[in-house]
Design a protein that fits this description.
Blueprint: E1 7-13, E2 16-22, E3 31-37, E4 40-52, E5 60-66, H1 87-100, E6 110-120, H2 127-141, E7 151-158, E8 161-164, H3 168-172, E9 178-184, E10 189-199, H4 201-214, H5 216-229, H6 244-256, H7 259-263, H8 268-286, H9 295-321, E11 336-340, E12 348-354, E13 357-366, E14 372-374, E15 381-383, E16 385-391, H10 407-420, E17 433-442, H11 447-462, E18 471-480, E19 483-488, H12 492-497, E20 500-506, E21 511-518, H13 525-547, E22 563-568, H14 574-578, H15 583-589, E23 594-597, E24 602-607, H16 610-625, E25 632-641, E26 644-650, E27 653-658, E28 679-687, E29 693-696, H17 761-771
Parallel strand pairs: 5-6, 16-17, 27-29
Antiparallel strand pairs: 1-2, 2-3, 3-4, 4-6, 7-8, 7-9, 9-10, 10-21, 11-12, 12-13, 13-17, 14-15, 18-19, 18-20, 20-21, 22-24, 23-24, 25-26, 25-28, 26-27, 28-29
Helix pairs in contact: 1-2, 1-10, 2-5, 4-13, 6-9, 10-11
Length: 772
């Protein structure tokens, strides 16, 4: 059998060759394209069923499949095989879905499926961008009715210059001030998604115009494929059964029965009830007996005609009367009220309510072990800032099954995260893992933007040193020909019946994120500029209201948040802190803290108790810098001896509290005053050349005579953790010169060697250990 010869098309994109091939792989479907960009290889297939479904919407599904063999890796899951798509795979699928969905013809009800399989990922070029181009090509050459082609690219902004398709490394290391994904057609913008530092609106629009120009050869290439090898588009019967007569009839009836007044009802629930009353009243007049033959079909058609009349009237009100469904003008923003600190045990919390949209955001600060491993085909990374968005059915007054996190929830949460991630402090400045959870309590338009506002307030309530407060606003568009109106802070109905859903977030200084979805064939950069300018006015208004409640981060972390102390130690002292087999670090953690030591000598101490964290910090500094004479330590009794007690000052370093320094009165037996494990405050009064540490009790200074200086000895090595005086280790009072001791107190060594008292085992243990 001969191997099929593929059709190969190529062009340059961002200084790299883009190759589209078809006719060799996956030939059972209508459209199949293999895309190569660098060493990233993606297979895209597109297929449509022959018969329409009974759905009242386009049944389009986009599946994005990642395979770990694409990066030469075995999945880390228990089963060692891929399961459900990861977060980035779902987000990539959404990008493709959002760019192609508006270009399917109205009334198409055949099931359409696009499957994207990443076969190779070079970890330099984003497979999601390549998949979107491949999808456009696969749909264009297939028999599926679709008004393409489109093209997709990423745009960065590095050193004041736009960069097409910046590498994953450039984006990951924040070399680029901007991370923008844009989809264009020949003459319009179709979809935009971006995150950035607080850059100006002009930079964002410039990036879109730059992409429009750079992507022109890609669109031309796909158009060439379509002309040369494209299939004839399949014919279909639009699902709508409306006749012109029914639409005209309903438009006349709605004018008589008060559709305008019903649409201008302020409340969402009340508006829905009034619209339903108008609709049902008109239908009952036209079809008085719903049981007669053909009545059910007529009622369905009339309901659809009413929806069409509602759509047209809402748009007419905006364009001709400059009024919206809740009686606002196009630039008006709904009333806002805010609460902070609403959850007692949380580290930070805030409720942001705008009209009939309400979100509770809760912030939690964690330690490094709480981060999340990002196990996808991008660069290996750990996520230290997470934002999770939840949308329960009760938020829209509905009853639905809850089946885990939906793609919509994941997408909305990702947008809010991108709005904030460059504004929260970096790990080296604020070494916490941060998780924010947004709970949607009510929703009537733009809950994702309410999430941004609530989450910014929640983080500041926790004491996170945010660079600037961030607010978000959703913009809409109603466009008929050259006449258009941009709407600020859109309602759910305006999102459904309008032509654009444009979400913009930012600080006073600039835009941090945006997301635009278009329901028409595209918009011009002029409309984009006007929408961004109007969004800025709304954003500044919201920020002013947020400042009235919380002007900036709280001065101190919430009392419930864990404390993290960060210090740096010499790299050659890391082993000292860890100790043999981790012994020293376990002793340090017994103070009530967790310790993490980086390869560069960065030490992070985590504790719910700030005092405990400071104790560990002091201990580590003592271990790496040495014990200071005159310093006071909270020690722990490690060992009792006849001549005193060994006190652990910090893990790994003990000192000797001589029997003469235990109490003001004479001490006959050390165990009468101290027990192993007791905590005691001591002061360092001496450290000899061999590292022996002498201690006193601070409260006894001036009341008990100090010990006599230890006589110099020649040839002795000794040493040890104890700081004890070996010359006095066999009894006697340390504060009395050796020559003054009674003769009977001195140990006698005039006996044969075998009769001499053996060296104390415990003592030799401390000496030998210190030598090591």
């Amino acid at each position: 059998m001969n191997i099929p010869t593929p059709k190969r098309y190529s062009t340059m994109l961002g200084g790299r060759e883009l190759i589209l091939e078809t006719g060799k792989y996956a030939k059972q479907v209508s459209g199949s394209v293999m895309v190569r960009y660098g060493d990233t290889l993606v297979l895209v297939t597109a297929h449509m069923t022959d018969k329409p479904t009974p759905n009242d919407f386009l049944p389009l599904t986009v599946e994005y499949e990642e395979r770990h063999y694409a990066i030469g890796s075995i999945p880390g899951s228990f089963q060692r095989r891929e399961s459900r798509p990861g977060n980035q795979a779902i987000l990539n699928a959404r990008i493709t879905d959002r760019q192609i969905r508006p270009l399917f013809p109205e009334g198409l009800r055949n099931e359409v499926q696009v499957i994207i399989t990443v076969l190779s990922a070079d970890r330099e070029n984003d497979p999601g961008i390549i998949a979107a181009i491949g999808t456009s090509a696969a749909l264009s050459i297939s028999n599926i009715p679709w008004d393409g082609p489109t093209a997709c690219a990423g745009v960065g902004y590095i050193n004041g210059q736009y960069v097409l398709n910046p590498t994953l490394k450039q984006l990951h290391e924040k070399e680029s001030q901007l991370e923008l994904t844009v989809v264009v057609s020949n003459d319009a913008l179709l979809m935009v998604e971006a995150s950035s530092g607080a850059v100006s609106e002009d930079v964002k629009v410039g990036a879109m115009e730059f992409a429009q120009k750079e992507l022109a050869p890609v669109i031309a290439l796909i158009e060439q494929m379509q002309r040369e090898i494209g299939e004839t588009k399949a014919e279909f019967t639009p699902a709508s059964k409306l006749s012109d007569g029914e639409v005209e009839l309903m438009e006349r009836e709605t004018k008589v029965h008060g559709l305008r007044e019903a649409l201008l009802t302020p409340g969402k629930k009340e508006r829905a009830e009034n619209l339903r009353g108008v609709r049902d009243g008109i239908i009952s007049n036209i079809v008085p007996d719903p049981e007669v033959e053909g009545a059910k079909e007529r009622i369905i058609a009339l309901k659809e005609a009413f929806n069409e009349a509602e759509y047209k009237e809402l748009r007419r009100l905006v364009l001709e009367e400059n009024v919206r469904a809740d009686l606002r003008k196009p630039t008006d923003i709904r009333p806002i009220w805010i609460e902070t600190g609403v959850i007692p045990k949380a580290h930070g919390s805030a409720v942001f309510t705008r009209g009939e949209t309400q979100v509770l955001s809760v912030s939690t600060l964690g330690v490094s072990k709480d981060n999340r491993l990002v196990d996808d085909l991008g660069l290996e990374d750990y996520e230290t800032f997470m934002l999770h968005y939840n949308f329960a059915p009760f938020s829209t007054g509905e009853v639905k099954r809850m089946r885990g996190t939906s793609r919509r929830e994941l997408g909305h949460g990702n947008l809010a995260k991108r709005a904030l991630e460059r504004i929260v402090p970096e790990q080296k400045e604020f070494p916490y893992v941060i998780r924010v959870v947004a709970e949607t309590f009510e929703s009537n338009g733009s809950s994702s933007m309410a999430t941004v506002c609530a989450s910014s307030l929640s983080l500041m309530d926790a004491g996170v040193p945010m660079k600037k407060p961030v607010a978000g606003i959703a913009m809409g568009l109603v466009k008929e020909g050259d006449n258009y109106k941009i709407l600020s802070d859109i309602l759910g109905a305006e999102d459904h019946l309008g032509d654009m859903d444009f979400k913009v977030t930012g600080t006073r200084d600039g835009v941090t994120a945006l997301q635009m979805d278009i329901k028409i064939k595209g918009i011009t950069s002029e409309i984009m500029r006007n929408a961004l300018a109007q969004a800025r006015e709304g954003r500044l208004h919201i920020l002013e209201l947020m400042d009235g409640v919380l002007q900036g981060p709280r001065e101190e972390l919430n009392k419930n948040a864990p404390r993290i102390v960060q210090i740096n130690i010499p790299v050659d002292k890391i082993g000292t802190v860890i100790g043999p087999g981790g012994k020293q670090i376990r002793e340090l953690e017994s103070y009530g803290a967790e310790i993490e030591i980086g390869e560069d000598g960065t030490v992070r101490i985590f504790s719910a108790d700030g005092v405990a964290a400071e104790k560990v910090r002091s201990a580590i500094e003592g271990m790496t810098k040495g014990i200071e004479i005159g310093a006071t330590y909270d020690g722990k009794v490690a060992k009792l001896m006849d001549f005193g007690a060994f006190i652990t000052l910090i893990p790994g370093i003990d000192g000797l509290l001589h029997i003469s320094q235990i109490a003001e009165q004479r001490v006959e037996k050390v165990s009468d005053y101290l027990k192993e494990g007791d905590k005691i405050t001591v002061k360092v009064v001496g450290v000899d050349a061999r590292g022996k540490v002498d201690l006193v009790r601070p409260e006894l200074e001036g009341k008990v005579a100090p010990r006599a200086p230890k006589p110099e000895r020649n040839g002795g090595s000794g040493g040890g953790r104890g700081g004890f005086d070996r010359g006095n280790d066999r009894g006697g009072r340390g504060d009395r010169p050796r020559g003054d001791r009674p003769r009977d107190d001195r140990p006698r060594f005039d006996k044969p060697r075998e009769d001499r008292p053996k060296r104390d085992d415990d003592l030799s243990q401390y000496e030998d250990k210190n030598r090591r």
